[in-house]
Amino acid sequence: MALQLDQIDRNLLRALQQDSRRSVQELGDAVGLSASACHRRLKALEERGAIDGYRAHLDADRLGFTMQFFIEVGLTSQSEKALDAFEAAVRDIPEVLECQLMAGQADYLLRVICRDHEDFERLHRSLNARLPGVARIHSNLCIRTVKDRSGLPI
């Protein structure tokens, strides 16, 4: 069920998505609220689950992660037990940034990040060995990110 948000809430969420390091005073100024009113709104949005955390956006290239792959995974079974086992195993692999349960040709789509070809080879072998119930893996190398998620269209 979608939360009911007024225009000030939407403006506040947009401002946070642009730069969550702003002070409460700066955010309040940006949306036309006092610091105390802005703080109350933020706390209410957190309590209602509209804000699920605050994160730093790291530069993968500068940190040595120069390769990104999208990996389609097909399982031998789509039973609840098989899906649960796969999902539990994938959560323990730090190079897997995202894992999506899919409808279509692949059962799952993984977004993984690697330092180089050798790192990807190690990860690929590890995925085959560590992930239960894998029938097939199809890897796609990302050449360049055209648009990165910069926030929800609030």
Supply the CATH class of the largest domain.
Answer: Alpha Beta
How many E-type strands? 4
Mind summarizing the main beta sheet?
A: 4 strands, antiparallel
Trace the largest sheet across and list its strands. Answer: 2-3-1-4
Count of runs of 4 or more consecutive helical residues? 5
What's the short story on this structure?
This protein is of the alpha+beta class. The protein has 5 helices and 4 strands. A hairpin with a 6-residue loop joins strand 2 and strand 3.
Description:
By secondary structure, this protein is α+β, with helices and mostly antiparallel strands. The chain has 2 domains: 7-47, Orthogonal Bundle (Arc Repressor Mutant, subunit A); 67-142, Lrp/AsnC effector binding domain/regulation of amino acid metabolism (RAM) domain (Alpha-Beta Plaits). It is built from 5 helices and 4 strands. The protein has helices at residues 7-18, 24-31, 35-47, 80-91, 117-130; strands spanning 67-75, 96-101, 108-114, 134-142. A 4-stranded antiparallel sheet has the order 2-3-1-4, covered by helices on one side. Helix 1 (7-18) crosses helix 2 (24-31) and helix 2 crosses helix 3 (35-47). It is elongated. The two termini are 15 Å apart. The mean pLDDT is 94. This is AsnC family transcriptional regulator. Keywords: DNA-binding, Transcription, Transcription regulation. Residues 5-66 form the HTH asnC-type domain. One of its GO terms (molecular function) is sequence-specific DNA binding. InterPro entries: ArsR-like_HTH, AsnC-type_HTH_dom, Dimeric_a/b-barrel, Tscrpt_reg_AsnC-like, Tscrpt_reg_AsnC/Lrp_C, Tscrpt_reg_HTH_AsnC-type_CS, WH-like_DNA-bd_sf, WH_DNA-bd_sf.
